[in-house]
Amino acid sequence: MSMMNNLDKKQEMQEIHLDQLQLPQELKKLSYPQCRRIAKEIRSLMVRVISRNGGHLASNLGTVELTMALHRVFDSPQDKFVWDVGHQCYTHKILTGRMRDFQTIRKENGISGFPKPDESPHDAFISGHSSTSISVACGIAESMRLRGDNHHVVAIIGDGAMTGGLAFEGLNNAGKLKNLIVILNDNNMSISGNVGSVSGYLRSIREKESYVRTKQAVEKVLVNTPHVGMPVAKVLKGTKDGVRNILVRQATLFEQMGFVYFGPVDGHDQQDLEEVLRTARRYDCPVFIHVKTIKGKGYLPAEKNPSQFHGVSKFDMMTGNPEISGADCYSTVFGKELVHLAKEHPQICAITAAMKYGTGLQYFEAEIPERFFDVGIAEQHAVTFAAGLASTGMVPVFAVYSTFLQRAYDQLVHDVAIGGHHLVLGIDRAGVVGEDGETHQGMFDIPMLTSIPNTTIYAPACYEELRLCMQQAILRDTGIAAVRYPRGDEKLMSFPRGELNTDYTLTEDENADILLISYGRTYDAVYRAHCTCQKSGYPTSLLKLTRILPVAQELAELVKRYQTIIFFEESMENGGISSIFGTMLAEHGFGGRYMRVACTDFLRHASIPSLLERLKLSEHAVCRYIYEYGKKN
Amino acid sequence: MSMMNNLDKKQEMQEIHLDQLQLPQELKKLSYPQCRRIAKEIRSLMVRVISRNGGHLASNLGTVELTMALHRVFDSPQDKFVWDVGHQCYTHKILTGRMRDFQTIRKENGISGFPKPDESPHDAFISGHSSTSISVACGIAESMRLRGDNHHVVAIIGDGAMTGGLAFEGLNNAGKLKNLIVILNDNNMSISGNVGSVSGYLRSIREKESYVRTKQAVEKVLVNTPHVGMPVAKVLKGTKDGVRNILVRQATLFEQMGFVYFGPVDGHDQQDLEEVLRTARRYDCPVFIHVKTIKGKGYLPAEKNPSQFHGVSKFDMMTGNPEISGADCYSTVFGKELVHLAKEHPQICAITAAMKYGTGLQYFEAEIPERFFDVGIAEQHAVTFAAGLASTGMVPVFAVYSTFLQRAYDQLVHDVAIGGHHLVLGIDRAGVVGEDGETHQGMFDIPMLTSIPNTTIYAPACYEELRLCMQQAILRDTGIAAVRYPRGDEKLMSFPRGELNTDYTLTEDENADILLISYGRTYDAVYRAHCTCQKSGYPTSLLKLTRILPVAQELAELVKRYQTIIFFEESMENGGISSIFGTMLAEHGFGGRYMRVACTDFLRHASIPSLLERLKLSEHAVCRYIYEYGKKN
Question: Looking at the partner chain, which of A174, A196, A250 has a beta carbon nearest the beta carbon of B173?
C-alpha cells in the first residue's frame, strides 16, 4: 500500500495521456490524480465519437471510474467482467486495446457497441438484452471451480436490469459461489425512469449513510498491522458471518439472498471504489457491491437529460442538442393513434416494459395516466399482467420492441393464448434495426407468433395502414393480435393508396409469369423494383400482404398459375410467412418455382439500408431477381 | 365475532357432510370443529380419486384448510383466487360445485387437474406453469380498480414457484395495489427439494417464532373495543407504516418489496388462517401472508414421501405404493446415458430446473454431484447459466420438459445462439403428454428451435437411437443441439434395427406413389400402418427422419417424384418440420400433392393414445390416409 503511494507521488508529476499507455496493464501503475486525468480523456473521447456515431452515452459516462477501478484491481482477461446491459462497456473497450478503433464503434465493419468475445478476449460475454449477467457469471464461476481456476467473475448490472426476473433467478442461484462479485451500477435510472418496489427500495438504501467506510476502516487497520494483518484478513474470509454481525446494522435484501453487501459506494470516487473491490476480492463467498453513479457524469447536457442521452443518434457536441427531428416515426404514430382509440374505448390499457419513449407511449401516459402501466424491464410480467387485465374485460395493448418480446414467449403461449385472451401487441423495431447489431435485430417475432394458435399478425406498409391495422387488432380481433412495424419513419410511399387495407392486394399483370410477394417496409422496395422493371419490359405481378397471419387460404389457388413466385421477407426464414406460404403452395399442387428471400442468420451491426441490401431486400436486389427470372420467360 | 362463536357452538353438535352442503356459500356457516370434519372428508375423497386417476396429491393434501379458509373469508367468484401452480386447486374444485365431477378429474371429457375458467366462474385463471400468479393478480387488481370494483385478488403461490423470475417481476410491480393479497404456500419443498438462497431465507424465517399472533392480538383488541374498534382499524389502513414500525421486528424481504408481511402462519390451523386473512383484507396495500403447510398432510405415505406423491399415476390407496414400474422410460435412459458419457468427458455438466427425477438426472447427481446443477424453477437462468458454462469450455446439458423450455426462448436466442455456444438440450415430454392437458403438451419446442440459426434437433424413435443422438449432440455437434423424446417408455419397436441412425432412412417401394414421412414416436405408428397396408396391396415408401433440423437438403430431389407425400408430425404445424419440408418441396418444383398431419390447436387433457388418435397420428389414422390416397393410383 505505502509502496504504491510513493510510486504515485513520483508519477503524479508526470503528464500521462491515454494513448501513451500500454493498456490495460499500465493502468495499474497510475496515481489517483493521474487516473482522474485519464478519466477525463476517456469521457472527452466518448463524447466526441458518440456525437458522430450515435450510441449509448449517458450510461457510459457514468461508469468511467468504475471500469478503471475494475481493471486496476482485477486482471482481465483472466478475471472476467460481465456487463449488463452490455452497452455500458465503452470505457472497457477503450482500456482493452480498442482505443484507436473506438471511432469506428457501431459502424459497419467497426467495433460493436456491445461486448463481443470475437472482438477481444477481454469481452467475456455478449449482452444486448438486460438482466443476464448474474446467470452468466454463475456459469463462468462454476466452470472456474471445476477447472481449479481461482480468478474472479464480476457481473456489473444496472439498477434497471435488476428488475428483470432473470437477474433474480441468478441471485437466487449464486449463494454458494466463492469467486463471484455482483456490482449494482445504481444510477437511479432505468432507460426512462425506474419503476417498481425494488427501485424504491434501492432509493431508500442509496440515501442512507454509507457503511462501507466503517467496514473498510476495520479491515484496513487489520491488514496494515504487521504480522497480524494478512492472517486476520484470511480469518475474515472464513468467519464472514461473525464480521457481518459486528459491522452490518440492517440486513439488506441482498444479504437476505446470501450475499455480503458493501455500499452504497460513490461510483466516481476512484479510491473508494478500488478499496471496496480489493476487500470484496478477499471474501470466499458472493459479494454484492452497491455503487452509486451519475448517468451522464462529466458532460453537462447528458447529466441534465440522461434519458435523452440513453441511446442517441448524432448530436451537436458543443450544445448537446441531439439531431432529433420533430417529424413522426412509426412509434409516435402508434402512440398517438392509441391515445385516440383509448379515449373512445375505456377498456383499452397501454403497457410498456421500460420503453415509454421508444414505443411512443409517452402520449398515453400524459393523457390517460390511470390506464398506463410501465412495468420496468420485465417483459414476462408485462404479458402475464396483460393476461390478467384481459381476463376481466380490459383490452391491454403491449408496445414492445420485437427483440425484447422474445422474453415473453411462454407467457404468450401459456398465459394469453391458452385462455383465449385478447392481447394486442405493438411490435416496434420489427425487422432490421441497424447499429445495435445482432442482439437487437427484430427478426424472431414472426416465428415466435406463427406457432401460437388463434394469433393474427399485421405488417402495415405505411402510417395510414398502421392506423387501420391498429383499429382492426384492437377493436375487432380476438386472441393475440399483433401489429409489427419497423424502426424509424415511413419512407416516401411509392405504391398506390388503393392498396391500403388490412388484408391483401393482388395486382396482376396478364403478361407476367412472375409473382412477387412481400409485406411491411419491404413491400415498397418490391413495388419500386416492379415499376422499374416494368418499364424495361419485365412485367411482374404483385401480392401485398397486410394481414400476414393467418395467411388467406384462397391465395394458393389464385396464384398457383405463376411459373415463378418470389417471397421477400424481413424476418427469419424458418417459421416465417414465406415458409407458411411455401407449404401452402406445395399443398395446393403448385408446380412452378418458389423462391424465398429472407434472413437465415444473425446480422452484425450496420446501417439499415446496408443490412437490407445484404439481405437482398432492397429495390436493387429485387430488380436483379426480376431480370434474372424474367429473362427466361 | 362473538355471534359467530355462538352459532359455532350450536352447529358443532350437528354431523355435517360435504355432500349435504350448498357450496361454497354454506361453508361460511360451519364451526371450526365442523370444518375439521369436512377437511377430513375432502382429504379422503382426494386420496380415493387420485389413487385411481393419478394427479397431484401431496400439494393438494397440504392446502385443504387454506382453501377452506379462503372460501370462508372471501366471496368467490367476486373475489378472485389465482392458484400457482394451478395443480393445488383440487379442494377449490371440490368446494365450488365440482364435488360430484371430481371423480372424473384428469379423465377425457372430465374436469381438468388445473383451474379452468370455462369449467367454472370460480376458476379465475388457467395455470399449469409456475410463477404466474402475482402478475395475473396484478392485472386483475388493476382492472378492478379501473372498474371501481372493491373485491380482492388473492394469489396463492408455492415456495417452489417463488423462485421463478416472473414471480419476482410480479412482486416488484405490486407495490401500489390496494386489494392484492399474496399467500406464500410454503411447504419447504419444490417438486424435488428446494434450492437457492430464497429457499434458505424462507427456511430461516419459517423457523422463527410467528409474530402474526402479536399483530392480530393488537388489532383484535382495537376492533373489539366498542366505538373505537372500526375507526381505529381504518386508521390502521392509512398509517400502515406506523403500525409496522411498532409491530415488526425485522423487515423481511417481502416488506422490503413493499408488502405488509404476516407470518409464518400454521397452514393447518383453520382459525389462525382465517384471522390473518380477515386482517389482511382490511389493509389498503398489498399484503403478503406466509403460510406453512405440510405437503401430503393427513395421508401418511404422502407426508413421508412428498416428492413421490407430487405428481403420481395410480397408486394403492391402502399401502400408498405408487404403481411405479421398475422398467426404463425415455427419461431414465437419457439420465443413465448422460452419466455414462460424463464419466468419460469431464467437461459435461448436467442442469435441471427442479425436475431432477422427472428428467432422470437423479443418477447424475448421485454419481457426479460436482457437475450437477439443480437451479430450481428457473428455466431462464438454467439456459443463461449454461451459456456461461459453455463460454469457458464446459459442455452443459439441460434436461427440461418441452413445455417448460418455452420460458427460455430469449435465452436460447440471445445468450446461447448469438455467441455460438454449444448447449445440449434434452427435451423430455416432447409431443403430447396426456392428462395434464393444454398447459403441458410439448408441442412448441420445434417451432421455437427451428427459427434459431445453427440449431440441430434430433427426434429418436427408440432408446437405442436416443443414445446415438445424445452421443452425436454432446460429443460432435456445435451450437444448440437438442434431442427430443416423448413422455413414457419405448413401445415395442416394429421398424427394422437397420433404420437406426442419427440422420434419415429412406425406404422406397418401387410400386409406391405415396411417400410417408415421420420422426420420433410417430414413426413407429407410420411404419406399422405401412406394413398393414402393404399386405392389402397398398404400397408406400417411407422416410424416417432422426435429425429433423436442419432438414437434409438432398431429400427434396430424392422424393419429388412421388405423386403424394404425407408428413405426420407430433408438433405444432407452423414452424414445424413439415412446414420446412413443404417449403423445400415448393422450392424444388415438386408438383404432386403434399399433405401434413400435425397439431394446429391446444389439446385438452386425455390419454396419450386418445390424443394421438385425435391428431390422426395413430397407426389407424395413417392407414386411413393410405387407403384414401392409395386407391387413386
Answer: A196
